[in-house]
Amino acid sequence: MPPREEVVVHLLLTIFDLLGTFAFAISGAIAGARHKLDIFGVLVLSFAAAASGGIIRDVFIGALPPASIQDWRYVAVSVVAGVTTFFWHAKVSRVQNAVLIFDAIGLGLFAIAGAAKALAYHLGPIPAALLGMLTGIGGGVVRDVLVSEVPAVFRKEIYAVAALAGASVVVIGNALHWPPQTVTISGALLCFVLRMLAIYRGWRLPVARTSDSPAD
Amino acid sequence: MPPREEVVVHLLLTIFDLLGTFAFAISGAIAGARHKLDIFGVLVLSFAAAASGGIIRDVFIGALPPASIQDWRYVAVSVVAGVTTFFWHAKVSRVQNAVLIFDAIGLGLFAIAGAAKALAYHLGPIPAALLGMLTGIGGGVVRDVLVSEVPAVFRKEIYAVAALAGASVVVIGNALHWPPQTVTISGALLCFVLRMLAIYRGWRLPVARTSDSPAD
Amino acid sequence: MPPREEVVVHLLLTIFDLLGTFAFAISGAIAGARHKLDIFGVLVLSFAAAASGGIIRDVFIGALPPASIQDWRYVAVSVVAGVTTFFWHAKVSRVQNAVLIFDAIGLGLFAIAGAAKALAYHLGPIPAALLGMLTGIGGGVVRDVLVSEVPAVFRKEIYAVAALAGASVVVIGNALHWPPQTVTISGALLCFVLRMLAIYRGWRLPVARTSDSPAD
Predict the structure, then answer these.
(1) How close, in Å, is residue B143 to chain C by CA atoms?
(2) Does B131 sit within 8 Å of C69, measured CB to CB?
(3) Considering the entire predicted model, what is its pTM?
(4) Min CA distance, A8 vs chain B (Å)?
(5) pLDDT of residue B212
(6) Phi, psi torsion values for A82, nearest 5 degrees
(7) B207 φ, ψ to 5°?
(8) How do the domains of chain A map onto residue ranges?
(9) What per-residue string of b and e applies to A110-126 under the rule 16 or more CB within 10 Å gives b?
């Protein structure tokens, strides 16, 4: 691959990565505003939602300090998303469809980036796929735990499964020595398409039939 | 000790370890089913309950990536426990006594394994005993936080204390140069027996008398 | 600086650090007692509130095992605070003003210590300021998550902002090569004064105006 193209691909990935960060940060800010946090609480929750997936991955593979703590752009993007949501909450809610699309893009990109980084740190295929999924869903889980709710990713339309599917493409492609660009793009696309189909067709995974209900 | 016996001991420990993982995973799956998670959410919660204690320990001592992420058997055992509980929820609830026994076995084994690994990483006696306790209770704490409940281990029959007792045997035995096998087995047994006595005799630790109640 | 003075400064910092730990541990114990945890649960929550900020910082910068796990004095101070609160809950509640002051001291000291340690581990200025803030607020966040409440630091009087201000003084002073003692003391003082003013004047950050309320 000529250097020119590599630069373009890297630039595109960075842009998508920051878009995904932005989408996850907005989901955190919306959750914070709904729970009447003050503006700083909203910013902390934005950052937590955007960065936790990558932080969990980096802690688990020992890549310390975590990238999203070290790179000021993630902090900056989170702050912009948080402030925007805080002051124009009604408008952000109205473009929630756009947010869902960004979120799906972020999920796909975080899942493949997580799996690829885990492979680069010499983890085996199953751990790498798991870590890719965790990188994708971690932010949403931490966001919901911080506002004392059961994580939505545990029960909403196909979400963690889409992340696992995207991460698995990276792991399988790596094992079969497919070209990295193809593998990365296919994985992200698979996750994104699965997620969008799940949203628009209302696909859901089965829920346990149980007579007893939780304590709360 | 002849190699033959060592192999047998190692095999037994591995079997018990996976049994403990299975028991903790079932407790996670039951919590997930009660909160109407979808099947994937149930699997994630099974794995979180089974693996979090060991993950916390491995992160704290810097043994990265954590063992339960790297060893596919823990993932496999969690998935089997989760799927079983999801589809045969009523039956699993009926053998809850068996689950409690497995859980007590798991608690004892996780506590001694946690303390022993911390000592192997050159931690002092107090940190090692603490980490043994944390390894034992961590899974239950993370499970309950993820379904937005106050961790049961903070208020149910003697639980964390049993784990601390088992871990302390390992630490004290190590300081006194007792034979590792004896120490390990005594620690696990002490934790298991304490826990079973607490369950069947209804032993409880005192609760603070306080007039004000929590906000929720 | 003559060695004599250095010893005095180090001694003072250690005393304040343990006072801060004590204050955070009391806040954890009060939360545990209000939620009817048993005595051991109260002790675990005391330790979690006192140690989590530092643990998060040490995990993020890779300083493993975390200092508050390794140094028995933090455990001892937490246990003393927890037992005291458990048995004399009414009296501790009555001196809650004193507790708030200790808490503000602890916040300031944890924030500067967090930022200074992050700089010592070669983190850049923005990550170091962030980690200082996280060290200060981490204990309160974990405490509230463990009793299933939305962290108070996300919505009470200027709290995380005070920690960030104190940490920023350390980072800026370090960049400008100011003498470390001056920087450290100024940072801690700024955080403490901001926090006390916020409490006694009822300063608050704005909260988002939103029509929809959280699900719970």
Answers:
(1) 11
(2) yes
(3) 0.86
(4) 33
(5) 52
(6) -65, -45
(7) -110, 145
(8) 3-201
(9) bbbbbbbbbbebebbbb
